[in-house]
């Protein structure tokens, strides 16, 4: 084990993706993360997505990486007692049960903090731990809907679409959760006091919808679906090429519009009073988009990128995963990392983020087999005898 978080022990009792993704981030940087799974089948993420040769899905192999798996039924008195002993020797608990569930089992934050006052507990749920909807169930798709994100995704007047990944809210909530956990660990280091970190799935998406809230509060602006366009700024969209691709162009200020005009061989457009500023271009959105679309449609992808690069205009092909695997930038940044897994053979997984100059993350192994760390956790760390472990296993407590 190496990394800046070595010495931090995390008990991940969550399921699926949101809170567990926080554990993945911490594990990438050296934290010891024990994935605590139900003895009967383990985490449902093992069965979500396409199956690898290991039997578990690629989602599991990727997103449970660097963790150790142990099995424990928290709903049983003996399982709960073993968990309390683990909490006494740990720093962080990650959970995403419906609010009140852990309290019902005698494992709520207040009860665990009596055992370990420095304990940090990340709690991810659909709507957070408080409020009139807190008891409702939910997944990422529900969070996309409730946050306002899904309403904005798609073409005007048509059915709203999935905004990229169906699991986006899970990933974002895990990311905000990791920030919260690190802040709480810093506070505990200074004061000796742990705390709860409370994240609602919808909140992580609502937080990143730029000016949606203040614009509505101040001016009553109700943003609607705009397809590939964005509010106020044009050209800032996706445009077709002559050879069947699409490019993204981003002219977020007047200077960039001048550069694009030069790249199109029509520098005079930047001086046209109708198109000179952000507000005037927005007033002539359809005209601007038509001008750019006619230009891109007459050129190959390569020609467009070459001309935009020459004028320093932000541009990119809309990349498929096959494009990504062939791209030199992804290779140079090691965004795709291949490891040899003893169960599945060679696996290519997304690289860790962020890059660190002194304490880089490390991909040690893919998602583990169910219960691969039972002996280490129960016998080595807790000192449970081999005989008792056999009995607990026979009764499906571990």
TrEMBL record:
Superkingdom as given in the UniProt entry: Bacteria
Alphabetical UniProt keywords: Transferase
InterPro entries hit by this protein: CoA-transferase_III_domain, CoA-Trfase_fam_III, CoA-Trfase_III_dom3_sf, CoA-Trfase_III_dom_1_sf
Alphabetically, the GO molecular function entries are: transferase activity
Pfam families xrefs? CoA_transf_3
What PANTHER family does this protein's entry cite? SUCCINATE--HYDROXYMETHYLGLUTARATE COA-TRANSFERASE (PTHR48207:SF3)
Q: What is this protein called?
A: CoA transferase
- Organism per entry: Tsuneonella flava
What phylogenetic lineage does the species belong to?
Answer: Bacteria, Pseudomonadati, Pseudomonadota, Alphaproteobacteria, Sphingomonadales
């Amino acid at each position: 084990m190496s990394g800046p978080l070595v010495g931090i022990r995390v008990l991940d009792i969550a399921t699926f993706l949101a809170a567990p993704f926080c554990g993945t981030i911490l594990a990438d940087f050296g934290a010891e993360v024990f994935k605590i799974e139900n003895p009967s089948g383990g985490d449902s993420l093992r069965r979500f997505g396409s199956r690898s040769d290991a039997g578990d899905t690629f989602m599991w192999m990727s997103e449970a990486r660097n963790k150790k798996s142990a099995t424990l039924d928290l709903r049983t008195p003996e399982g709960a007692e073993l968990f309390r002993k683990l909490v006494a020797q740990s720093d962080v608990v990650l959970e995403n049960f419906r609010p009140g569930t852990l309290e019902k089992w005698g494992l709520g934050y207040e009860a665990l903090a009596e055992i370990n006052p420095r304990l940090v507990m990340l709690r991810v749920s659909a709507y957070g731990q408080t409020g009139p909807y807190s008891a409702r169930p939910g997944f990422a798709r529900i969070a996309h809907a409730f946050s306002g994100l899904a309403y904005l995704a798609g073409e005007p007047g048509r059915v709203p679409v999935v905004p990229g990944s169906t699991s986006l809210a899970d990933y974002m909530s895990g990311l905000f959760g990791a920030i919260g956990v690190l802040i709480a660990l810093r506070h505990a280091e200074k004061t000796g006091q742990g705390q709860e970190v409370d994240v609602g799935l919808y909140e992580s998406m609502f937080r990143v919808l730029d000016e949606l809230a203040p614009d509505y509060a101040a001016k009553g602006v109700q943003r609607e679906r705009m397809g590939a366009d964005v509010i106020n700024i044009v050209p800032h969209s996706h445009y077709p090429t002559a050879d069947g691709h699409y490019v993204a162009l981003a002219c977020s200020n007047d200077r960039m519009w001048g550069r694009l005009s030069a790249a199109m061989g029509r520098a005079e457009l930047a001086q046209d009073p109708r198109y000179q500023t952000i507000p005037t271009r927005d007033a002539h959105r359809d005209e601007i988009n038509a001008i750019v679309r006619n230009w891109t449609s007459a050129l190959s992808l390569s020609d467009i990128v070459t001309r935009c690069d020459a004028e320093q205009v932000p541009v990119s092909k809309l990349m498929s995963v096959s494009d990504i695997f062939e791209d030199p930038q992804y290779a140079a940044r090691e965004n795709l990392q291949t490891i040899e897994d003893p169960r599945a053979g060679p696996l290519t997984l997304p690289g860790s983020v962020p890059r660190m100059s002194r304490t880089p993350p490390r991909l040690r192994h893919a998602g583990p087999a169910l219960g691969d760390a039972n002996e280490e956790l129960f016998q080595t760390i807790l000192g449970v005898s081999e005989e008792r472990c056999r009995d607990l296993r026979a009764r499906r407590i571990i």
